[in-house]
Hints:
The chain is globular, with a radius of gyration of 24 Å. By secondary structure, it is mostly helical. It has 2 domains: 1-195, Preprotein translocase SecY subunit; 209-392, Preprotein translocase SecY subunit (Orthogonal Bundle). It is 68% helix and 6% strand. The strands form 2 sheets. Strands 4-1-5 form a 3-stranded antiparallel beta sheet. A two-stranded antiparallel sheet has the order 2-3. The chain has 19 helices and 5 strands. It has helices at 2-8, 12-31, 41-49, 55-62, 66-69, 78-93, 95-101, 104-136, 151-178, 183-193, 196-209, 214-236, 272-281, 283-288, 294-302, 308-329, 332-341, 353-388, 396-419; strands at 238-245, 248-250, 253-255, 258-265, 344-345.
Amino acid sequence: MLEAFQNIFKIPELKKRVLFSLGMLAVYRVGCHIPTPGIDGQALSHFFKQAQGTLLGLFDMFSGGALEKLTVFALGIMPYISSSIIFQLLTVVVPAIEKLSKEGEAGRKKIIQYTRYGTIVLSVVQASGIAVGLESMRGPAGELVVPNPGWGFRIMTVITLTAGTAFIMWLGEQMSEKGIGNGISLIIFAGIVARIPVALINSTRLLKSGQISLFVLLFVAALMFLVIAAVVFVERGQRRVPIHYAKRVVGLKTFGAQTSHLPLKVNMAGVIPPIFASSIIMFPATIGNFINVPWVQNAAKSLTPGNWAYNLLYVAFIVFFCYFYTAVTFNPVDVAENVKKHGGYIPGIRPGKETSDYLDRVLTKLTFAGSIYISLVCVLPSILIGKFNLPFYFGGTALLIAVGVGMDTVSQIESHLITRSYEGFMKGVKIKGRR
């Protein structure tokens, strides 16, 4: 593997792309430490310690800790992700957007432009909510988080946070175009990985103080290794549906019978279900931080991570959104029609409706397996923190994103190396997607 990393710098184009991505990530991390004016940092930090297990904690994870410090990148890339998901869902619901999506490159660029506009609108709305919410927050001694509240602070905060999100969006697009990997995904990845040093320091401190035994720490380390290996295995998993194409005559040319396959991923919905599920189930806990009403406080406490009610609802929402998002993004009827149009068929299955019904049955079983897998990974952090008193968060959406982005980036680097006759990262190992 060391030789493979050395080969990266032997290819000028690949070297330039990798260094460009690293440089952009460095710029992003610097911006995560530039505070927004008008905030009492200590009082805000104390408030966020009480906000673990809420939407604020979830957004802080995606922003790489920038929200907790309320830096210029406090909103992170979440508005862009939300806007992208909204337009992806609208593609199925709104005929005009669906038509745009089928117009090739021109239509895709138009949807991207709308996504950018949606990002700015969502950023303004979220920044406005944060500015108003900050004015009502108080520190441990009752001091205001915002010493000088008012419209001046609100307007400045909205402009600062919206501009920060727009800049991150631009950074991600530049990395996708001139760097290696998906820029937006790498920014989220950098924010998640940035917490690893703090987790290691906290674990060492607890080990020295005797609060965690060496046996428990080694057991957890082995468990983490097994979970990561399992996530990589399942994320690469596919159900390959065989498709045969009959002999065809096009003009003066005759094409012989061909055999291909339709790859159906086990986890087709990706990380969308846990993100949606977390957002919904954490909403009461988030409201509970701002509303001092007894029944609201009780509802918020019952839905904090670690409680059986939280885990049960979390799993139920994940399973629901796995089926919902898969149904939105994959249409068996359209796939069956396309296969039939090109003269293909699944062995033993009639073309048309029987093919779509068969694909629907296969997809239903795969989605069930994928939803159980995602649920186990997402409930894991609650178990580790509750049973072993771990000082860091391992598993859930963060792990799925980190592993997925890591595999995608390594695959792209691998493709660059192999196309230039260099050996990839895994010598003698067959990797799916390698030509």
